[in-house]
Amino acid sequence: MPQPGTPKLAPAAANHDWLRLDQQLCFALYASSLAMTKLYKPLLEPLSLTYPQYLVMLVLWEQDGISVSTLGQRLSLDSGTLTPLLKRMETAGFVKRQRAAQDERRVDILLTPEGLALKAQAQKIPPRLACAAACSLEELSSLTRRLHELRQQLADAELSPTTPD
Asked: Hey, what CATH topology would domain 48-119 get?
C-alpha cells in the first residue's frame, strides 16, 4: 500500500509516454543545468573564474576558513575533484590552503584579499541571471527552494531495483 503523499502509479500500459525524453525530470534538470552553466561562462570571465570555482567562492564568501571536507560536503564534490580545483584557485591567488593548527590532517581554505575582492564584482551576477530567467525574485526563490527540497527527497529515497506494476 502506498504511503500518504505517494502518487499512485498508473498501469504499465498507460505509462508509454513516461519514456519520452521530454517527460523525464532528469533530462529537464540536466538540460537546464547545461544552459545555466553556459549562461554563467561570460559572466564569470571578467572574474577569471570557472563555474565550479565560482561555487567554491560562494561558499567561502559565506564562511571563510572552512575545511576542504566541509567545502566538499556543501558542494557535493569529492576530494579528488575538489583538490585540483583548489590548487588552481590557489595558483590564481584567490584562496590559500592551510593546515589546521589543532589537527594537521585537516586542510582549511582561506580567502586571499584578491579572492575577497571578487565578491564585489560577483554581486552583479545574480540580477543578470534573474533577468535571463525572466522570473521575478519571488519565483526564483520559490523554484530554488523547491529544487533544494527535491534534492533532499531524492537523497533520502531508497528505491528498490524493481518497480511496482
From this structure: Arc Repressor Mutant, subunit A (1.10.10)
